[in-house]
């Protein structure tokens, strides 16, 4: 596999519509539990977890038509105010990123350069919608959830209960495992027929709450496919952390 630079890897991680790979389903011979829409919707509501601080480490793998590779991430999030990331390769820091609700900055250690600017300008440059709340939710495994009145359909497919809705011109389908009631997959299709699939697995308890420790995301832009896989570990909730960030005076600004 061709190695991706840390700079490329972290830029993709920061953008909230870069999404990842497939996971293998677990087959069961057990009879699927018969549940009502209200029961399944309650399970969907319980997927999102509230937090003040959320921190973790992650193994990140990315694959697209132009680049592929892997790296290690340190993730620290202060709700509604800060996303702080450090990317490493073979234990060496290559990039450090800090984003607030309006601004971002990125330091590239190996190149002695940095980027800095508004999220609005970054969105215009990349052509990818960048919403700070979506970025935070992507990292922690949360997802947009409709009201129960906004649910358009409810059915059972194999071992998954499916709920469909439409939010802000997005067609969304939620797949909830019928046995453990964990959110297994979300499929999002926008008005340009771009498809995002987010898959959740390896749920583990953290402070009595279930958190997915593996998040695989696929973004299909009319056949141009990008995949990102995050394997999370050492998740801590509501434990404040230091987020040191300063741009060395001898670094050159790029872009």
The largest beta-sheet arranges its strands as 7-8-9-10-11-12-13-1-2-3-4-5-6-14
Calculate the terminal CA-CA distance, rounded to whole Å. Answer: 28 Å
Radius of gyration: 19 Å
| Percentage of residues in strands | over 45%
Q: Please, how many helices?
A: 4
Give the overall silhouette.
globular
Tell me the series of helices and strands, N- to C-terminal. HHEEEEEEHHEEEEEEEE
Whole-number mean pLDDT: 86
Uncertain residue ranges: 1-28
- Helix/strand structural class: mainly beta
Determine the fraction of residues in helical runs and give it as a percent range: 10-25%
Structure description:
The chain has 255 residues and is mainly β. Helices cover 14% and strands 47% of the residues. It is built from four helices and 14 strands. Strands 7-8-9-10-11-12-13-1-2-3-4-5-6-14 form a 14-stranded mixed β-sheet. The longest helix is centred in the first third of the chain and has 9 residues.
């Amino acid at each position: 596999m061709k190695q991706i630079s840390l700079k490329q890897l972290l830029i993709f991680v920061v953008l909230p519509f870069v999404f990842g790979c497939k996971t293998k389903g677990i087959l069961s011979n057990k009879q699927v539990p018969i549940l009502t829409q209200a029961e399944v919707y309650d399970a969907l509501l319980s997927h999102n977890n509230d937090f003040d601080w959320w921190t973790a480490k992650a193994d990140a793998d990315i694959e697209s038509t132009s680049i592929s590779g892997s790296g290690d991430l340190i993730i620290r999030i202060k709700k509604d105010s800060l996303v702080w990331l450090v990317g490493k390769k073979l234990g060496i820091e290559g990039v450090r990123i800090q984003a607030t609700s309006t601004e971002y900055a990125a330091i590239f250690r190996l190149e002695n350069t940095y980027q800095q600017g508004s999220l609005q300008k970054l969105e215009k440059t990349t052509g990818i919608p960048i919403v700070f709340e979506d970025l935070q939710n992507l990292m922690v495994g949360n997802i947009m959830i409709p009201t129960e009145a906004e649910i358009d359909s409810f059915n059972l497919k194999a071992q998954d209960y499916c709920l469909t809705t439409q939010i802000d011109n997005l067609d969304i389908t939620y797949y909830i495992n019928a046995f453990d009631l964990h959110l297994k997959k979300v499929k999002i299709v926008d008005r340009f027929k771009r498809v995002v699939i987010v898959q959740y697995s390896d749920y583990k308890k953290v402070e009595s709450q279930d958190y997915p420790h593996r998040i695989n995301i696929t973004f299909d832009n009319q056949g141009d496919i990008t995949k990102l896989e995050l394997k999370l570990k050492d998740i801590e909730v509501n434990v404040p952390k230091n987020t040191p960030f300063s741009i060395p005076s001898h670094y050159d600004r790029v872009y």
